[in-house]
Specification:
alpha+beta; 2 domains; 3-stranded antiparallel sheet; 4 helices
Amino acid sequence: MRIRSFSKSTRDAILRQGEDAVRVAGAAAERGDVQAFEAAKALIRQAGERYAAGLPRPVISCCPFDGKPLIRSFDPFGLDGEWWRRGFPRPDPPACQHFCVLRGAVHFRGFRRVAGSFEVTTGPEVPYVIPRILSMPSMLAVIGEVPMETGYLAYTIGYFAETRPPVQDLTCDWPDMTHSYRTAMGEVGQKAANDPWDFELRPWLEARKLLWCVPDSGNRVISFDDPNACPYANIEGDRYQIGVKDDSFWSNGLPDGTIFDHLD
């Protein structure tokens, strides 16, 4: 298993190779050149594998029950990376038995909001909780932070439970928008991630349902300080679902709890 992550220059080169191969595949398909199309598809697959293998795997949270670090793949180099694409199969290491789901946010800190050729949904700029999930028995949430090379700051909200709820009762990992799951009985399901958010963190902090990683600890140490000391409770920033594509950004509103019968 690869452990060393790639540099930004190597990552950018891999992305360019993949984009070039996509263009070649499209041109080959238009002219009916099956051999060239299959060769381009192989290059696209190879670029995807190299990208996934080289992704950094930082510690982004810490389990409040056993203290084990939560290590996930992440692309800190920019929102144009495939990690940020909805449905990307993120190559994550195994987590502890208490880990349930990861949500997140990106604070742009005044820097220009820019992504790639596909729409990215980053979440809001500030940390939040999902009351439906955090209210589950033994569920706790932990806020962490991961600096990005762009100057942005990613906030992570990891959910952990002493007894993990059924997967169908949870939601998708950030930055996805659709929760696809397989139950313990093998049933496959899919639903939109549309649970309402709560930005008022103080009541959850005071109830000790919400904790946070000690800043500058690499998200390896959970603070048990007074809730009033939480550095994430009153951060200023946009409190809506942010969409970004190329150098344009917009508001996708807020999830309102509507249950959709089907997904397009």
